[in-house]
Amino acid sequence: MATAQDMRIGDAAAALGVETHVLRHWESMGLLAPPRSSSGHRSYTEEILDYARVIQKLQRTGLSLDQIRQLGRGGCEDRQAMLAQRRAEVRERIALLEATDRFLGHLAACDHPVISECPQCSDFAARSHSRREFR
């Protein structure tokens, strides 16, 4: 494998665990701008690889590539607003998963022969219907 200073796209993709078309796509979207050699080959430095790793992390948080691009271009207030919205979505998802876990835990221990006749199951269903805990 080449060094980070002269790493070509195939080596960079392997180092990041992605396909080369992913790096080309990120470049086409304006997320990465690897310099080109005199022969036109992309050259991936450690700094560019680190930025690509940040993109991967941000994708894992559920941000789209367009949102990631906006983070890099927007001001501090825009970034804070976008991230506050994403964090609210994550907290909502966590609450849904916790409620789902409680419900499944109860179902696993429920000894009612017909689950719909269980008062606690009915209570879970009534709360989830009114608060949209379960979808």
UniProtKB/TrEMBL annotation:
Keyword match RNA-binding: no
Keyword set, alphabetical order: DNA-binding, Repressor, Transcription, Transcription regulation
CDD domains documented for this protein: HTH_MerR-like (cd00592)
Repeat as UniProt keyword: no
HTH merR-type domain sequence ranges: 6-74
Sample GO molecular function, one term: DNA-binding transcription factor activity
Protein name: MerR family transcriptional regulator
